[in-house]
# Entry
Amino acid sequence: MEFGLWELLAAFGGGLFGAAIGALPAFIFTGFFILIGSIAELGGSAFDMVFEVGLGVIFGPHIAFGGAVAATAYAAWRKKVDDGKNILVGLAGLNNSGILLIGGIFGAIGYTLEKFIALGVGDFTDTIALTVIISAIIARLIFGNTGLFKLTSEARERGRFTPGGDNVWVVYQQSWIQILTLAVGAGAIAAWMALQIEPYAPESAFLVGFGLSAFSLIFFQFNVQIPITHHMTIIAGLAAVTSGSLLVGVLFAVLSGLVGEASARLFLIHGDTHIDPPANAIWIMTTVILIGEYFGLFDFM
# Structure
C-alpha cells in the first residue's frame, strides 16, 4: 500500500480510537480481524481484511496500539493515570480530548514511520513491529522520566536482568523453563496451522497463530492468567513456512520467547512507559529469519 493522505487521516482516527479503548483492547481487535480475514480469504474473499484492516490503517499495531501506548504515557505525564505502562485502561474514561488527540497523532506517526522503514529495510524485517518499538521509544523520551535504561536503586542492587517486586512483566511467565514450555506448545500449534493453510493462503498463513494469540488476550484483559504468546506464534508460523519444517517453527518460537522476556527486562520492567517486549522479539526474530532465507540457510533444513 502506498502512502496516501486519506490513509494518513484514517491512521489518525485509528490511533485516537485505540487510545479511547486502550492499547490492549486495540490489539485484541488486531487479532480478531486477522482471524476473520484469514477465514474470509480461505472462503475466496477478494478483500484483504488481514492486511488492510487487521494490520492496516485502523487496527495495525503500529497505529492503534502504538497510539494508545503513547497516549497512556502522556496521560501518566499529565498525572491523569497512575501507571504509564498500563495498557489495559481505556482512556476515553478520563474525559480528556487532549489525551485522545495524542493517540491520533501517534497513529499518524506510526503510519508514516512504517512507510519510511518499509522503503529501507522492508524486505528484511517486520516493519510494523519495528515501528511499534520506535514509536514507544519516542513516547518514553518525550513523556517518560526513566529514559531507556535508568534503574532504581532497588533494581541496581538486584540487577537489570533480575525481575522482582514491581519490576516484572508477566509474573507467571518470567522463568526460563516456563517460557520454554509455553513456546513449544504455542509454536507447535502455530507452525502446524501455518503449514496446513499455506497452500490456500500463502501470504497470510503464517499470521493465523498470531491472530489466535492476539485475540486470546481478551481473557487477559479480564484478569484471566493466560500466556502472552503472539511473539512466539508469529515467528513459529514464519519460520515454518520459510523452512517447510514444523520443528524449525518450534525452535524459532522458543528463541522468540526468550528474546521477548529479555526485552522486557531490558526496556520495560524498569521504565515508566510501555515498550512492548513481544514487538521487540518479533522484529528481531523476523530479521533473523529473512536474512537467513536470503542467504539460503533454510535450504539445509
